[in-house]
Amino acid sequence: MTSKERVLMAINHQEPDKVPLDAWLAPEVADQLIKMLNVDSSQDPFALAKRLGHDFLYRAVGFCEGYSTIYDETKKIGPNLYQDDFGIKWSFKKQDLGGYCEMVEHPLADLRNYDRFPWPDPLKVSKVGLEENRRLIERDGKEYGIIGAVACSMLEGAWYLRGLENFLLDLAANLDFVEDLLDHTMKHSLALSRELVKMGVDILWWGDDFSVESGPIMQPELFRRLLKSRYARVFGELRGLNKNLKIAFHCDGKVEWALDDLVEVGVDIINPLQPDANDSAAVKKRYRRNLSVWGNVDTRNVMSRGSAQEVVEEVKKVIRTLSPGGGHLLCSNHTIQATPRALDNAIAFYWAAHHFRGYPIRIESVKEEARTTRVV
Question: Count of domains in the chain?
């Protein structure tokens, strides 16, 4: 069975030969694995993912491309200062074992800039990314599942431009402006999504972090007015281009409160279903064939700080909970960050994934494992 067949069976709630596999790796962790496995990624940017056994591939376009600005010297405008195509300024915050990029200036922080803001042409600013997606489909589209990733889609694009604090204040005091700004970011991401769907991606990935771990960042009624209505419009148009298209949606934090709404507008796959903020077993039971899960091995504690054995047990738990009956793409909950445990735990993750992801799932429950141990 090819990786593509495996993915398509799983997201159609059938049991393939194995649970499809993915993981998000910080660049520092990926570099260690490339060196350890002697992977040559000079000709194929997906060489490591293939070597590790990933079943689907993606290259993000849109607002999320800003996160890679710090690696592009042509975007450098000062000491540790980079500017993306939207005018958002970024810097790199170094830590002991890696670092992270951070937005340090937002072009619409001053609303007086809004009326004269030079909205970039999405097909021009993401020309390189779109071409890489086209080559990816031509080279690997028959063997692997291909995701069209427009992951920081509408809400996130809006606050990247405005600044998070300003945007949250706008939600309380300036809704007409918010509506207009969201229309702009929606149109930008929709234009990119159309191109990816026309290319032939299997899954279209949108995402906005409209929740934190305690719940939504806005009242559910406002979420439905501002975001849900626009998601419905976008996903409906994209399905008009390909009726078999699957829609994946990313939102960190507690999302159970919004799943009915997301399913209603056409979301097929939720990512990551953060395990320390949601009840994975309850979601699996409630939505059954109506929603797949792409996730959700804990990265905050287990992958970052746990032992190799704890990683193995976490992978087993996730597979046991989410994989039976299909509808599951096994993945880390978020990026596996560069910590003292990262390399060892990444190795443990892949070992456990490859060891336990075969169908039919035969991982005993915790209670059954304990009972068997006592008998022995």
Answer: 1
In sign, the C-alpha dihedral spanning 250, 253, 256, 261 is: negative
d(CA 19, CA 352): 12
Closest CA to 231 of 281, 186, 285, 191: 186
Average pLDDT, the chain: 95
For residue 94, is pLDDT > 80? yes
Residue 85 domain-assigned (yes or no): no
Domain encompassing residue 131: 3-78+107-375
pTM of the model: 0.95
User: Residue 100: inside a domain, yes or no?
Assistant: no
Q: For residue 7, how many C-alpha atoms fall within 13 Å in the half-sphere facing its CB?
A: 25
Is residue 17, in this structure, part of any structural domain at all?
Answer: yes
The predicted pLDDT at position 141 comes to 98
pLDDT for 100 beyond 50: yes
3-state secondary structure 62-102: CHHHHHHHHHCHHHEEECCEEECCCCCEEEEEEECCEEEEE
341: domain CATH number is 3.20.20.210
36 belongs to a structural domain: yes
